Amino acid sequence: MPLGDGKVVTMSWLFRVTTGVVVAVALGGLAPDVSHAQTTAGTEVSPSAFVDRYCVTCHSDRGYERGAVPMSLQGLDMGEVGAHAELWEQVLRRVRSGMMPPPVARRPDDAARVAWVDWLETELDRAADARPPLGRPMTVHRLNRVEYRNAVQDLLGLDVDIEALLPPDDADAEGFDNNAEVLSVSTTLMERYLTAARRISQLALGDPGLASRSQAYQVPELEVQDDRTSEDLPFGSRGGLAVRHYFPLDGEYLFKVDLRRNFYNYIRGLGNTPHELDLRLDKALVNRFLVGGAFEGSRCATSYCGSGSGGFPEWGAYSVTADEGLQFRMPVQAGMRLVGLAFLRRPAIDEGVLQPRPSPATFGYSTDDRQDGNPAVARLTITGPFDGEAPLETPSRQMILGCRPAHSGEEAGCAEEILRKLARRAYRRPVTSRDVTALLSFYEAGRRTGGFEAGIQAALEFLLTDPEFVFRVERRSPGVEAGVAYPVNDLELASRLSFFLWGSIPDDELLDAAAQGTLKDPAVLERQVRRMLAQPRARQTLAESFAGQWLGLRRLRNASPDPTAFPEFDENLRAAMYRETQLFLETQFRDDRPAAELLTANYTFVNERLAGHYGIPGVHGNHFRRVALPDDRRAGLLGQASILTLTSYANRTSPVTRGKWVLENLLGAPPPEPPTDVPDLKSREEGEPPTSVRELMEAHRRNPACATCHRTMDPLGFALENFDGIGRWRTTEDTGVAGELGPAIDPSGLAPDGSEFEGMSGLRQILASGEEFTGTLTERLLIYAIGRRLEAADMPAVRRIQREAAADESRWSALVLAIVNSGPFQTRRIG
Question: Domain named DUF1588: which ranges (predicted)?
């Protein structure tokens, strides 16, 4: 940003003063007692005068009463900012980022603004020190369904389909579903937990009384199956699917294949040539089906009978029944098995002029009755067991049955040993005699009706619904008064740590340290944190649960680009988009990179499908590999198609949506909700030349009701306009008319503080060099770590975490360690 003397400063300098020299120069050594000072512009000003001069003009009682502004600052005592900490934290965020005062209003010079921000931050921190952060309120914290699934897997070695067992959880305002305040409990939900516990206990031990069930695995309708679609399928295959299916008992199972059909229920791609479809179990071929080629000749090769002329009636019947015989029954041993289904790929070169492949989402494709092309799998259904028997051994049985009684006299002692071990992990603490007595009572009830293993299964079912397992309960320490913060004990700290980094229960090593009372020792705690971060599940949890919710990546599964505007979009591309970002994030966590590299990294991960979408040559096959980017267009998250697609409309880009996403998720300054009577953008009249989105938005901003928010959001979104609605690079806008050249894209703009930037490169540099991004990331990571929303009393802790992590370039391990050592993470309060 240009200053009066011609110098240029970066947004990072404007966001936070890091030396006392600048403060002394800017405000003449402003003291906490709000004494007067001299600014660089030669104007004497106090913090109160600063507010009166630059804030109260708009943020007055009158403006607030009229609804023109969300808050009033008139008459507030600047000597007691701690009395209105929540309000001043909001002010601090917006003034520090340069959003306030707005560019159209009277603004202080940069040195005075930064000095005032530094003073206010210091005062808020001092007030918080006098009244320490309150810690987490005593709220019973239910495990969300992802945590429940992870806990079951760690406890029993069983990966269950949790989406089929439990309903989705609500999310808080920041998008996180592990917030204790939104994890409600209802009678219906507890019934689902009871049903889930019964099913899980039966699967884990292999209950011979399990009824036969069918599990269908769908292939998405928009997935193109002309090439290899999974790393779990062999080379030289195409289409199909690979799934991990749990076979609960030793017995026979039926595998049934349904082929993809068109709108009229005719199976696609039967043609004249048979196709070989392989069924594999744990990658071993168990059966080969033949699909198509049942009729010779070309009389029905280009049209189905009934929709054309000259066909055979027999072909019409065959076209709707050809997959009825695609089923195979075979014995399978219990356990988790990899089931693969794929066609053999026949290498061939298409003849004639290469035509663009039609989008599977279009009506024309769904009603196409041509028989050329490849058949495709619609679903695989696995049914069983038939004549099932209890398995002799599975990984789950090995984890549960730590002892096997040789005769009835050993059963009671063995049962107690098994249940003690399970309860310790499930309850996340040493077990008591009362715990064991309760579990043994359920064991005895089950044993009387079905023997030893039935008794263990009954006790396990109770364990999985016990409030000590389903809820994270932190008990009140004796003698602690309401409203007073106090440290959590070692066992509670261990649970907080494991659910933060693993989304699951503590392992034995962490529990041992907690039970011995040594976990709070700084050296022990750091050693445990680093050990946990080194495990693959830590980076998977942080990438999927934390970053997936922080960035909104989970919404990508629901993105539905218009097939008319984006015929290239299909399920293969959607999956590649998501996988790219997931691999990128996991690499950032694994390599312990500085947080700013999320925005600046000069590499990404692509397979052939995504590389073609990006225009990156030399990438072949479905396997993802790391590639260096040829330029900075796609550097970091903001160049990845996943982010660009989920922030677009179905048929075009949206600078407003993208700008709002940057403000909320990267700068932590969400705009207010739009008014209810927002007018639509002007539509293009017939015969008019195309108008750029920038011009339409400028006309939109002339409306005073829209100008305030759009002045901040739109420039950030325009910086991303070189990417279309599914993340392809472009230099001109799309008009929706085939062959028409749209207006040239102008990606330049102004940052919230008024500094100019040019396109993605300029915006990326501003975001990465400033502290607002790392501050927002710190807030979001702390919210996820403690499972509650932040309060004004937590913000000094956020700034402290940010400063501590900055000493190590804000690397992920530094951020995590600073959070784990923070007051909000290690304390709680009553009432």
Answer: 634-733
Question: Read out DSSP for 748-764?
Answer: EEE-TTS-EEEHHHHHH
Within 10 angstroms of residue 451's Cβ, the number of other Cβ atoms is 13
- 547 — phi, psi (to 5°)? -65, -35
Cβ within 8 Å of residue 702, ≥6 positions away: none
75 sits in the region (left: phi over 0; alpha: psi -120 to 50; else beta) called: left
Give yes or no for residue 121 having a pLDDT over 60. yes
Sign of torsion over alpha carbons 65, 69, 71, 74: negative
Same domain, 111 and 252: no
Nearest alpha-carbon partner for 100 in 775, 705, 753, 776: 753
- Its pTM stands at 0.88
Query: Which residue, 468, 482, 392, is CA-closest to 424?
Result: 468
Q: Cα separation of 105 and 103, whole Å?
A: 5
Nearest CA-CA partner of 553 in 643, 449, 679, 672: 643
Q: What is the DSSP string of 278-298?
A: EEEETTEEEEEEEES--S-SS
**606 with 721, same domain?**
yes
Q: What Å distances lie between residue 710 and 76, 196, 262, 703, 769, CA to CA?
A: 29, 48, 45, 10, 24
Structure tokens at 586: 């996991």
Burial 32-49 (b: 16+ CB within 10 A, else e): eebeebebbeeeebbbee
Q: Judge if 586 and 646 occupy the same domain.
A: yes
Give how far Cα 68 sits from Cα of 57, 62, 75, 534, 752, Å.
12, 9, 18, 51, 20
* Cα gap 425→507, rounded to integer Å: 7
Structural domain contains residue 819: yes
**Does residue 34 have a pLDDT over 60?**
no
Same domain for 593 and 558, yes or no, is yes
Residue 301 DSSP class: S
10 Å Cβ neighbour count for 530?
13
On whether residue 380 sits in a domain, the answer given is: yes
Q: In whole angstroms, give the CA distance from residue 822 to residue 816.
A: 10
Query: Strand 327-332 relative to strand 377-389: parallel, antiparallel, unpaired?
Result: unpaired
Alpha-carbon span 334 to 186, nearest angstrom: 35
Q: At what angle do helices 795-806 and 771-786 cross, to 10 degrees?
A: 120
How confident is the model over 232-266, as pLDDT tens digits? 999 999 999 999 999 999 999 999 999 999 887 88
When pLDDT is averaged across residues 531-553 and rounded to a whole number, the result is 95
- Note whether 316 and 217 are same-domain residues: yes
599 and 736 in a common domain: yes
Strand partners for 257 = 380
What is the CB neighbour count within 10 angstroms for residue 650? 13
Interval 543-568: pLDDT, tens: 999 999 999 999 999 999 999 899 89
User: Phi-psi region for residue 632, left (φ > 0), alpha (ψ -120 to 50) or beta?
Assistant: alpha
Q: Which residue has the tokens 């512009």?
A: 41
Do 800 and 732 lie in one domain? The reply is no
Q: What SS3 state is found at 456?
A: helix
Task: Tell me how crowded residue 313 is: count the other CB atoms within 10 A of its CB.
Answer: 9
Contact 151, 143 (CB under 8 A): yes
Instruction: Provide the domain limits for residue 285.
Output: 213-389
Other CB atoms closer than 10 Å to residue 684's CB: what's the count? 14
Cα separation, 23 vs 37, whole angstroms: 10
Peptide bond into 385 cis (omega under 30): yes
Number of domains the chain contains: 4
Listed range (607-621, 677-691, 749-763) with the worst mean pLDDT: 677-691
